[in-house]
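Table S2 (text version). Query chain:
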Amino acid sequence: MLFSFFQFIMALLPLGLIIFLIYFAITILNLMREKNDLMRELIYELQSKRER
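Corresponding structure-token output:
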């Protein structure tokens, strides 16, 4: 019984790892997109101040 439970855990481990990696990648992409938006806003503000 214990051995089959251990096999079950070992089978689920790679699946969980893949899901974690996908979640991690999505989180990083979202952070980078937010950072780019912030940079774009900063550049826009600087340009508008320079034009004034």
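Notes on Table S2: The mean pLDDT is 89. The CA atoms of residues 38 and 44 lie 10 Å apart.
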